Amino acid sequence: MITSVNTSFTYLLLLLLAPSTSASFFSSNKDECELYLAPSHLKNAASHGFGLGIFAGKHIHQGEILTDLREVLIPLYDSSTLDATHPPLREYLWPAVGCVPELAVHTTDRTKAFWFGGGISSMAPCTSKGFNVEISAGGNFAGAPRWNVVEDSDGSVPSRDDPHAGSYSYRHGMTYIAARDIAPGEELVVDCTDDNFDHLSLQNYKRINSYKADDGHMCLDNVRIGESQVANAGKGLVAAKSISKDDIVLSSPVVPIHRRDLFGDGTGTGKTAISGINNYQLMLNYALGHEDSDLLLLPYGPFVNYINGSGGSAGQKANAVLKWHKTGEKEMEAPRRLQFHHHELFSEYAKAVTETHGKGLVIDIVALDNIGAGEEIFLDYGEAWTKAYEEHVKRYQAPSDASTYRTADQWFHNKKLNPNPEFLKTVDELAKDPYPDNLQTICYYDSDAKIEKVDEETNTSYAVWNDDAPPHECMRPCNILERYPDPEDEDRMLYTAEMMHFEGEEKYWFCNMRPGKHIARDVDYDGILIVDKAYTHDIFLEQAFRHEIGVPDDFFPREWLRSKVRRRAEQEPTRSDVGDEFRRKKTNVVISRKSPKEEL
C-alpha cells in the first residue's frame, strides 16, 4: 500500500496508523511488478555489501508510504559475541538505541540490544546521503512506540494462559516513506547515520537500473501481510493473487547463524543476564534448521518471516515447500558482489559457513498446490518442530500473573484499563492508583537539554524540554510531577518530570547528564512513554516456546550435518575465505543522529 502524506513530522504517525481498508500496494495486474529483487549494482559499484537489492517496478512519488512493506521486528538481547566476533548475522542487525529505543529498555545493558527487521532494513544499501527511502522511526524522536505496534489493535496478542505467549514477535510496524520521487527500475536506498555502516556516499549514483522484473528476477507482488487463520498466531502471509502449483510464491536470501549465537549470551554456556528467563533468543523461532546441524539460516527477504507452519495444533495443510533457488549462468558468472547464491557453500562445513562474509544463499517458497487469492501460505515446519510444539502444549504452565498481565502496549490500548491514555499519571496519582508492576514511565531527555538554572544547594538542574530541538534520543526513567494544559493549546497537556539517572548512561554521550537531580518542565506528551520493565515482556518467559523451523530432510547437504562429518575433518576457514572486506557494520559504537559534544 502506498499512501500520500505531507512530509512533516505528522507522517510518522500517519504511516503507522494507515487504515487497513486502503488499496493494497501490490498490483493485481499479472503483467506488472511493483517491487522486485535483483542483483544490486549499487553495492557492487560502491564495494559496500553484496547480493540482492530491492527495486521499484513502478513510479513511487515523494511522500508516499510503503506501508505493506512493514516487517516483523525481532529483538536480540544480551549477546556477548555479536560485536566481539562480528559474524555475518551482525551485518543484518541494528542497535536498538537510537532507532527503536523502547526495545533497548527491555534489558539492563542497552549496548547489547539489537533488532532485526528483514526486507528493506536488511537488503537495501544504507547511507546518510543520496537515499530515496526513510525509515519510519525518523523525525523528532528516535522511535514512536505508541504507533509502531499494531498487533494489539485487533486483540491478536495471546494471553499468558496461551502456549503461544512469547513465541513470536508482537511488533511489526516498521515502515518506510519515499524521500523523493523514485523511478521504475531504481534501487531502494535507506537513510541511516554514518555510525551504522562504514561511510557510503551515493549522492551521484546512477538512479535508473537496467533490470526489469520480467527478466527472470524475483517479483514481490504474489503475497501480502494478513491476519493468520491460526488462532493466537498473529499475522500470516496471504496470496495477493492466484498462484499455480510449482510456481515460486516468494524468494529470500538467508544469513547463516551458528546455533550457539542464539543460546544464552552466545558463548555456548547458556548464560543469561538474569536467572529465570528464556535461555534461547526469540530469533530461533524464525530460523531454518536441521536437528542434526549447528547451522541455522535466517531469511531476510521481504515478508518471508510471516509464513506460519502447518504443524502442531494449527490444523492447516502445507501448501508450499522450501527449495534452493536455481541460478543461471549469467548470475554465476557475475562479479562476486553481484552474486547472491554461492553454491560453493554447500561443500563447506557448517562452522565455516557461519563465519564467511560476502557469500550468500537464496531460498524459494514453491507452491505445492494451486493457491487462491486470499489463501494463507503454510509451510511444513517438520516432524521435530511438530513434536516439540505438541510437547510444549502438554507441559505448558502459565505464570501466576497470567490472568492480569498485559504488555505495555496491550495495557496502553486497553480502554477499560487505560481509559484516558492522553493523560499520564503523576506520582501522587500513582500512589493511589498505580500502573501494573511490570510497567514503568520513560521520558526522552538528552544531555543537551536546555538548562534554565541550577540550584547549587540542592544540586538540582531545572530545564525546559524543547520539542523544537530534535532529535530526542535518550530514554530514561522519569517521574511525572505535574500535568497542566498548554497555554497555547488547552486541548494539549504538558508535564513537569523528574529525569532519573540510569545504570550505564555514561556509555552514551547524549544520555550522560550532569550529576544531581534534573527537573524538566513543558515535557510534551510524545516525549513520555509507558514501557515494559526489563525482562518482564512475554518474550523473556522461561516457558515460552523455542524451536527452529525444520527444513526438508534432503535440504541440508551432508557437510552441514554433525552425524555425517568426522570431527577431525572440521577445519577453521582461513582469513581470506572469511571475507573481511564484506564487513560493513561498525561494532561497539554509539549510534546517534547528533554531532558529539566536545564536553558533556
What's the overall average pLDDT, rounded? 81
- Molecular shape: globular
Termini distance? 44 Å
In percent, how helical is the residue content? Answer: 10-25%
Number of helices: 12
Unreliable segments of 5+ consecutive residues: 1-31, 138-154, 201-206, 210-214
β-strand percent reads: 15-25%
**Mind describing the biggest β-sheet?**
7 strands, mixed
Cα radius of gyration in angstroms: 24 Å
Number of strands: 29
Structural class estimated from helices and strands: alpha+beta
What order do the strands of the largest sheet run in, or round the barrel if closed? 23-24-27-26-25-22-28
Structural write-up:
- It contains twelve helices and 29 strands.
- Strands 23-24-27-26-25-22-28 form a seven-stranded mixed beta sheet. A six-stranded mixed beta sheet has the order 19-20-15-17-16-29. Strands 1-4-10-9 form a four-stranded antiparallel beta sheet, with no helix packed on it.
- Residues 1-31, 138-154, 201-206 and 210-214 have low confidence and may be disordered.
Compact summary:
With 600 residues, the protein is an alpha+beta fold. The chain contains twelve helices and 29 strands.
Topology:
Layout: E1 2-4, H1 10-16, E2 35-39, H2 41-46, E3 52-56, E4 64-71, E5 74-77, H3 82-85, E6 94-95, H4 101-104, E7 113-116, H5 120-123, E8 126-127, E9 133-135, H6 145-148, E10 174-178, E11 190-191, E12 218-219, E13 223-227, E14 235-239, E15 248-258, E16 288-289, E17 295-299, E18 308-309, E19 320-324, H7 329-332, H8 350-354, E20 361-367, E21 378-379, H9 383-395, H10 408-413, H11 427-432, E22 439-444, E23 450-455, E24 460-464, E25 475-486, E26 489-499, E27 517-524, E28 528-532, E29 549-550, H12 575-578
Parallel strand pairs: 8-11, 16-29, 18-21, 24-27
Antiparallel strand pairs: 1-4, 2-3, 2-12, 4-10, 5-7, 6-7, 9-10, 13-14, 15-17, 15-20, 16-17, 19-20, 22-25, 22-28, 23-24, 25-26, 26-27
